[in-house]
Design a protein that fits this description.
Blueprint lengths: L12 H5 L5 H8 L8 E5 L7 H7 L2 E6 L2 H8 L10 E3 L12 E7 L8 H12 L2 E11 L19 H10 L2 E3 L4 E5 L3 E10 L3 H14 L4
Parallel strand pairs: 1-2, 1-4, 2-3, 4-5
Antiparallel strand pairs: 5-8, 6-8, 7-8
Length: 217
Amino acid sequence: MSHFSFENDPKGPALQAFESVDIYLLDLILKGRIRPGMKVLDVGCGHGRNALGLMALGCEVHGFDPSAMAIEQLKATLPEEIQTRFQVGSLPNVLNIGDDFDWVICNAVFHFAPERVSFHHWFDASVSYLKPSGSFFARLSTQVAWPTGAASPFPFLASEEDLCQAEDRHRAFRIEPLKTTVVEKLRTMSTWVLSFKKDEDKYDEDKNNEDKDNEYL
């Protein structure tokens, strides 16, 4: 398995490209889960905070965002031949960009769903882009470990039950434990990393292995 390293370029362009990448996404890169050559969809890509770093890694990155201004600003930084990979779009609408992605990433997107039903529709639409053995990464504010008395700045906060229901609906399993951080006692951010298997025997085998890996966490 190929792992990315800054060893040969400790302060050069490679490092600069990763300065704005989400730290938990960078963790997956350093572990070799996201590797050069993979096809990645950035849902809610904005100005390219994560997309630019993934392109520097050597991934084929596509993305969409509801902000036309953000998409135009991102395109302006890219070679003309790949600008069409990024377009205006929003969940739960499904764009005609294929269903063969190795990874779909949704960074700071789901807590803007207006309510619970929309959250589940947004999740369903996001994972529809994945190939059968693809993987999914999301960072979202949730009810998990929510600080007592804190008011939510977001329209919707998923519960862990919501996450489990979404996983069960798509026969997904966690390839990383659910990690939740409390931000200054004001809100939480959970990191949700999944994989999907269509083959029932393989799914059961991987799910059992995942349960063993998490037994003592």
